[in-house]
Amino acid sequence: MSTNQVPAWQELHSGMLFWKFEGSLSSDHAASGVAFMEKATEIKKGDRVLDLGCGLGGHSIELAHRGYDVTGLDWSEIYVNAAKRQAAETGVSIQFLQGDMINLAFDEQFDAVILWGNTFGEFEHEDNVQTLYGIRRALRKGGRVLIDTQNYQGLPDKLTQGWSFDNEDPNLLMLTQGTKDVARARFGFDVLAINLATGERQRLPYSWRLYLLPELESMIREAGMNLITVYGDDPKKVDWKGYRRGDPYPYAPEGFTDAAAKRILLCQA
C-alpha cells in the first residue's frame, strides 16, 4: 500500500453517506442491542463502559439512559459531533472522543468495552491485533469486552451484486458489488453511490479481514484476555419468532453455526 493511499476504512467513514447506506440506528434496535450487551457483560448501573466505534452514538446514549458511565470513541469527527448533538438533545451526559481505536491510551479505566457493528476486522491484521491489546489495557481486571464480528463461513457466500435507492432520496442510487481477496482473507463489498440529479459519484469500500475462530481465540489470548462465549444468530437455532423489538436480541451460543451471520465474542481480561 502506498504511504499516500487512504486506508479503505477511512474512506468508508469519511462522511455521512455511510449512514445513507447503513441506515440510522432506531431506538428499538438500540434498546435491543444494549439489553443484550447488559446480559452478556453483566455490567451494573454506574459501571464505566467504553463504546468503541460509537458512530452516531445510539448505543452510547441508550447505555447512559440506563445508568452507565459511558465514553464513546470514534475515528470520524463528523460522527462524534453528530453523537454529541444527539446526546445533548436527549439530555444525557456522555464523554464522546474523536480518536483511533488502533492506538488506545486508556489504562484499566473501564468495566466493559463494546465493539459493535462489525467494526473489528476493518483494519490490516497488525492493527486488528493492536486494537485487542488496547482493549485489554483499557479494561479493569475481570472486565469484559463484547466484539461483534462477521462469521467467516457465512459472509463470503452472501457477497452478490445488487442495487437500491435511498429511502429518503429517490435520486440516490447505490450499486453493490461483492469483493473477495482470498489470499489476504479479506471479504466485503464496494458500494457506488450515484446522485442521479447531479451525476456525483462516491465509493464506499466495505472490507473485513475475516478470521477463523481458532485464530481469533489465539489473538485474544495473546492480548491477555480469555474468550468466554461465542454467540450467533442462526434463525434455526435462535428464537426470533418470540423476539419483540426492545427486548434483548436473542443471540445465543447455540446460534453460532455455519449459517449464522453474526459471531459475537465475549472476552474477559
Q: SSE order in H/E notation? A: HHHEHEHEEHEEEEEHEE
Query: What is the typical, i.e. mean, pLDDT?
Result: 91
> What percentage of residues falls in helices of 4 or more residues?
25-40%
Secondary-structure-derived class: alpha/beta
Low-pLDDT segments: none
Strand content: 25-35%
What is the count of structural domains? 2
The Rg value, from CA coordinates, equals 18 Å
* CATH fold type of the largest domain: Rossmann fold
Major sheet strand order: 3-2-1-4-5-11-10
Overall CATH architecture of the largest domain: 3-Layer(aba) Sandwich
Task: Give your account of this protein's structure.
With 269 residues, the chain is α/β, with parallel strands linked by helices. It folds into 2 domains: 8-153 and 211-268, 3-Layer(aba) Sandwich (Rossmann fold); 156-207. Helices cover 27% and strands 29% of the residues. The strands form 2 sheets. It has a 7-stranded mixed sheet, with helices on both faces. A 4-stranded antiparallel sheet has the order 6-7-8-9. Helix 3 crosses helix 4 (58-65). The chain is globular and about 55 Å long. The two termini are 34 Å apart. The model has no long low-confidence stretch (mean pLDDT 91).
Short synopsis of the structure:
The protein is an alpha/beta fold. It folds into two domains: 8-153 and 211-268, 3-Layer(aba) Sandwich (Rossmann fold); 156-207. The chain has helices spanning 8-12, 17-22, 27-41, 58-65, 77-90, 125-138, 213-222; strands at residues 48-52, 69-74, 95-98, 110-115, 139-150, 162-165, 172-181, 186-195, 201-209, 226-231, 262-268.
